[in-house]
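Lecture 7 notes: from sequence to structure.

We start with a single chain of 425 residues. Read the sequence below before looking at the structure.
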Amino acid sequence: MGILIKNVHLLESPEAERTDVYVTAGRISGIGREPRGFSADEVIDGSHKTMMPGLINAHTHAYMSLMRNYADDVPFDEWLFKRISPIENSLTPEEAYWGNMLSIMEMIRTGTTCFVDQQMFPKMAVKACADSGMRALITRGIVGESRKDQAALQRIREAFDEMEYGEAIGANCMFGLGPHAIYTCGEDLLAYMTELAHEKHLLINIHLTETANEYRTCLSEHRATPVEYLDRLGMLDERILLAHCVYLSDTDFEKLARPNVSVATNPASNMKLANGFAPVPRMLKKGIRVCLGTDSAASNNALNMFGEMHLLSMAQKGAAKDALVLPAEETLRIATRNGAEAIGREDLGEIAVGRTADVILIDEREPNLRPLYSRKASLVYSANGMEVSDVMINGRIVMRDRNYTTIDAEKVYYETEKIADRFRR
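Now the structure, written as tokens:
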């Protein structure tokens, strides 16, 4: 199927320049010049619109949208262990599916075309991605003490079953291993999962040094910072995505500045749960790859990457008392290209001939975006995500003129409200 987007502005182009973009078989096949043999099955008018790469949400738990606004204004330990975990443990796989669909709806609506998920319900996120056309890197959340822990081994088996399932149904999914955190996984289990990741060439997705208590406990129990602890286990030698990294020692920065290591910062979640501010400017100066995530809707309480970009830049400027920190162009790269590199997808995060067509269109005819002196600044400092009008993933239009083309929104609302009624009771 050929798709032509006419007279659109590309975010990286000069402000007044417009062009035509051609999409064939899921890829950008031409920019400004019609490729040989191209036939347009669909034409999108790009006048008054800006095209940019789809945003990559580098850390979330998609099924947890069902817990949005359910446990607020409480300390982190109470939020996780007393409020969220009991509800999470009561969920059925079908309920988790609808939670995933609700999250995907919100992400598509606000311009996210790929997300990195740590989830507890095998195959449900994969099924939701297949049904909606969304792209994701799925990691099964794993907890336990050792490689002999039968419950942990079962979750690992489920992770590999999920990979086969994703391939069988043709979902836009990649897969990795998801040890939850150093405080929910024993040292032997972490070592075992490091061995598995190396053997199977899989990304590791783990929460790390999210709270001051986690940092202090690791120093006490292991005589090492959380980063040093993972390095001792060999985990930092694998391709790894570390969520949060709020608390880092001076020596931690050097250990994280490796091409196979990425940090997913989550400013809204860290602020809401009173965990502080990740030292993102210093990470970037040290050459650490930083990408951006929302965390779950239970702790954010949104999955809107435009809001997250805005908060990231503003909060870091304020914390550093430096207006030059996290400029708009760098913030946009963190939310697009850096996320693509973190998950090993060099074909994403950029608009160029030959790249996969994961792109979004921004409607410039919104009062909060005018005047358009700088589109990049407007997207980080002025946009709220509702300006996204069209979304394409793998060359497939999943939202057109703000209408979903692959999702029955009313069905999702109906099913999720039924689940919420159970929670209320």
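The CA atoms of residues 95 and 419 lie 7 Å apart. Keep this in mind for problem set 3.
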